[in-house]
Design brief:
The complex is a heterodimer of chains A (277) and B (262).
Chain A: H1 2-12, H2 16-51, H3 57-68, H4 72-97, H5 103-141, H6 144-150, H7 155-193, H8 198-206, H9 211-219, H10 221-237, H11 242-276
Helix pairs in contact in A: 1-2, 2-7, 3-7, 4-5, 4-7, 5-7, 5-8, 5-9, 5-10, 5-11, 7-10, 10-11
Chain B: H1 4-7, E1 21-32, E2 35-46, E3 50-55, H2 61-68, E4 76-81, E5 84-85, H3 91-98, E6 101-104, H4 116-127, H5 132-145, H6 161-173, E7 179-183, H7 191-208, E8 211-215, H8 219-225, E9 228-233, E10 236-241, H9 243-247, H10 252-261
Parallel strand pairs in B: 3-8, 3-9, 6-7, 7-8
Antiparallel strand pairs in B: 1-2, 1-4, 4-5, 9-10
């Protein structure tokens, strides 16, 4: 990295505008490496705190309720919307090829394999990621985290491990809710255009669906949960600068968590295709 | 009911005739970037005594308290609490020392998501094996002592700043600490409530021979609770002594500060 920085300096020397751009790039590189370095240390410390007793079971359950039941209506609604949109779009395309009989299977496959997991992760990253970032950020600037540490309670164990674990455990369950809601509303949209029974729709939709389609796709949301919880907690715990800092932490938690979820999705889909495809 | 003190390992008291300090700070230095906040602090505090630290805003008084409890790491120097050199301790060893220290934060730092009662019982729930009823009794006795029993079910957002401070004090006292660190304990309170808190601190000193370090600007508190007073100025302890000694100080800064404060 130092070589890259030196190279930028050599290339840019003698040109004020280039030098300015070079300095900006160098600063960006350094802050990026610093961020990832701090994140690595944070993950290591969190992992160590997570495996050391005593365990915070009570707080974990509270966080699962916070992440799970309070996100459920939003996730179900998002799933329903995706079901309707998929039905409308896919029906239109399939009609052109006279293949509308494939509509149920396309809706189900599309929701199970991609739309359900990614929509759930993005909705949760918006609601929970921002919530965690703002809550921990606010606790940081009002010295509540210091107070916890002064009470001989490890904030990483009590605040971070519980939230990250709650996100990991709850995301697959929320994905199931989004999937089901998508199937149901997909059927409503389909049957409004061309009436079919829900039973027939489900049978048609799931007859080619195998466990290798359903399980890896659903359980990959545990990785998304880990990303959302981790980024929210990390951004929250490094908050500085009062209420303005809290706002920045909440925003950056959502933006970064959503970005990393999408990037992780690319990687995970590729891995799933390699191992289960 | 079994008291918290009986459940906790006690901070080692000095042997008979020994005059070892409860808190001993040597050449403590701390800087943030290029700004030096503490430039070689030396302090001794005897068991059962109360030291008040005064100084202008931004001179590092709160930083000093945070260094003492290990919330921040010093750049160099030594902090001895009882027999423990806290700058050298691992996190788990440091936590054992922290269980014997109560910390009242400047803005109380109550946990927003917990009720007043849950805030006070938080350390008891985590570090003692008290039954629910024992915990309830202890929490309510502490809350009534600071005049906050009526607000036990309220959330921190529903009470005033002064009330938060009193709940913070109850929480700091929950584990029956042997050393209390108080950051502006009476700031933001009306004179009557401030007087009550000062009396409470005085009572605790007499009943429990509690050792305390108090950071404050309030002269009423300084006079009421201090056995000795240290003036922090430009990163150093400018002078240390009784209230009268400081009031009669010939140092220009000291005399100007006391004149304005009184």
């Amino acid at each position: 990295m130092q070589r890259q920085a030196c190279l930028i300096e050599v290339v840019c020397s003698g040109h004020p505008q280039l030098r300015y751009a070079g300095t900006a790039v160098k600063t960006l590189f350094l802050s990026l490496f610093e961020w990832f370095g701090e994140l690595g240390i944070f993950v290591w410390r969190m992992g160590r705190a997570g495996v050391t007793p005593p365990y915070e079971g009570r707080e974990l359950i509270r966080q699962m309720d916070e992440v799970g039941s309070k996100s459920l209506p939003l996730v179900a609604l998002a799933g329903a919307a995706i079901g309707v949109v998929l039905s409308l779009h896919t029906r239109d395309s399939l009609l052109r090829f006279g293949a509308e009989a494939l509509l149920p299977v396309l809706i189900v496959m599309s929701i199970v394999k991609e739309s359900g997991p990614i929509i759930t992760a993005l909705v949760v990253s918006g609601r929970v990621g921002a919530g965690i970032g703002a809550e921990l950020g606010s606790m940081k600037v009002t010295e509540q985290i210091d107070a916890m540490e002064a009470s001989a309670v490890d904030p990483l164990k009590f605040l971070v491990v519980t939230r990250v674990l709650a996100c990991v455990l709850v995301l697959p369950l929320l994905t199931l809710a989004a999937d089901f809601s998508g199937f149901a509303m997909g059927w409503v949209a389909t049957t409004l255009a061309d009436p079919i029974s829900f039973r027939f729709y489900l049978e048609e939709g799931t007859k080619t669906l195998a466990y290798r389609d359903f399980l890896p796709a659903t359980f990959r949301t545990m990785v998304f949960g880990f990303i959302i919880g981790l980024v929210g907690c990390f951004q929250g715990m490094r908050t500085s600068g009062g209420t303005e800092g809290v706002g920045k932490s909440a925003t950056s938690a959502v933006v970064l968590a959503s970005l990393f979820v999408i990037l992780a999705d690319v990687l995970l889909v590729r891995l799933i295709l390699v191992f289960f495809g | 009911m079994v008291t918290v003190a009986e459940r906790m390992p006690t901070m080692k008291s000095p042997a008979d005739g020994e005059t070892k300090a409860a808190v001993q700070i040597r050449d403590l230095r701390k800087a943030f970037g290029t700004q030096t906040v503490l430039a070689g602090i030396n302090l001794d505090l005897a068991y059962g005594k109360t030291l008040t630290i005064m100084g202008q805003s931004g001179t590092g008084k709160s930083v000093l308290l945070k260094l003492i409890i290990g919330l921040q790491k010093p750049d160099s120097g030594a902090i001895q609490i009882g027999d423990s050199e806290i700058t050298q301790l691992s996190v788990s060893e440091l936590n054992k020392v922290r269980m014997k220290i109560g910390f009242l934060f400047q803005y109380a730092a109550l946990y927003d998501s917990l009720t007043v009662e849950e805030n006070v019982s938080f350390p008891l729930r985590r570090h003692t094996e008290m039954s629910k009823s024992e915990r309830h009794d202890r929490v309510h006795s502490l809350l009534s002592r600071v005049g906050m029993q009526e607000a036990s079910r309220k959330m921190p957002a529903e009470i005033s700043g002064g009330m938060k401070k009193r709940v913070g004090l109850a929480r700091a006292l929950a584990m029956d600490p042997e050393l209390m660190l108080m950051d502006e304990p009476t700031a933001g309170l009306d004179p009557i409530k401030a007087g009550e808190i000062n009396s409470l601190i005085r009572e605790l000193q007499q009943e429990r021979h509690m050792t305390a370090i108090v950071v404050t600007h309030e002269m009423q508190t300084v006079k009421a609770v201090s056995d000795s007073i240290a003036m922090l100025h430009e990163g150093h302890i400018l002078t240390q002594g009784s209230f009268e000694q400081l009031r009669k100080s010939q140092d220009p800064f000291m005399s100007a500060f006391m004149r304005e404060a009184c």
